[in-house]
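Can you give me the bound-state structure? Components:
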Amino acid sequence: MYGKGLRALSVTTLITLVGAFALVFFYAPNDADQGFVQKIFYVHVPMAIVALFGFIAGGIFAIQHLRTRDPRHDLRSYVAIHISLILAIGVLVTGSIWARAAWGHWWVWDEPTLVSFLIVFLLYATYQPLRFSIEDPERQARYASVFAVIAGAFVPLNFLAVRLAQAYTHPRVLGTTGGSMPGDMRLTFLIAIVGMALLFITLWKFEMAAKHARANLRSLRRKLGVDEVPAARRTAAPSL
Amino acid sequence: MRVALAVLRKELRLELRTLESIPGMALFSVTTFVVFHFALHRGQVEGDLAAGILVVTLLFAGMLGLNRLYVADEEQGGFDGFLLAPVDRTWLFVAKALALLAYLVVLEIVAVPAFALLLLGPGIDQALPELVGVLLLADIGFAIIAALVGALAVRTRARDLVGPLIALPLLVPVVIGTARALEPLLLEGGAEPVPARWLLILGLYDLIFGLLAIAVFDPLLED
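Here's the bound-state model for the whole set.
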């Protein structure tokens, strides 16, 4: 059921992302202070925003799992957090490159957005070890959901605390003032966000479709009396 | 509430008889102050450095308490007994958090004077009421997170690792808030007032995670 519309969605994602990158290189003006380097912004910031919303989405699926005890919700939460975690690594890498180019250091501690993102990343990095260290699949799903709910609520609160703690050096792109970006940059940025969000949704659906296909295959084999297919490698993904 | 008090009484009695957590936590904190003295090569500290040392030491000492909090229940069937009793499970969380809060208060009664004697440059007597208030807010936050994460970690394979790994990032806002709030209190040449926004952050954290923990604690105990 996750395979439905996947091709159309993939094509849309591809077109949006290619369009966004075309705009980045040929339409958006170079930044007055930072020049060409600033263009990493159109990858870095959308990735960060999508990753954070992915973490929060994982928390929302986890709430549904705790309410209904349907393993499919746990799988949704697992896949959302998994993809967000991969994006988060990308965010930290691109952020470091940008920081090196703009401020001359790979890592800047008096920089609330960087630091709070690192804390969120470290927290979610324990999601997989937590799953791996619980044997019973049903308990694993419940505990992982509890973790995902707490961590999802932690994301906004952590940003508030860390942001208050330090002076602002990081540019505020979606702050309350908000009017600092010229129109053509803003348009490019918005399209980049949409492209990244579509990429997330596409990857999520692909992963869900693959997991469902594997579960279906396994149940069909079981019905045919074939021995259980050995798992390719150790995984903590929820089995349906 | 009666249930929580009964469990709390059991926890405290268990701790008084076995003396498993609190002496270890207190000794750990004093040792850590000594280690800080050699690592930093300083006779005295003040201001932000003092606040950081105190907060980090208390945090790590608290981690010892987190790891011990549910071990007896897991190993000796306390969970099963509690699940068989016809009571609301949330009370177990409340009792554990209160027990840990009590441990932390005792720990700080030992650790803060030791810190003042061993490392702190300026005296703390004039700032004592504010210091107690800030630490109490921090302890509530720590106790909530630790009671929740401890329950999450105790039935995993690597529980001594999983607990702190999850709890440390979750507690970063508490660490920031406490360190920033304590900083003006530990300044050389007289304490300055605590900025209200850090107290607000700590209070907000305690409130949000308290409610959240009560909401999600139940699924941790089933089976």
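A couple of observations. Chain A touches chain B at residues 66, 119-120, 122-123, 126, 129-130, 133-136, 138-139, 142-143, 145-147, 149-151, 153-154, 157-158, 160-162, 164-165 (CB under 8 Å). The CA atoms of residues 188 and 218 of chain A lie 45 Å apart.
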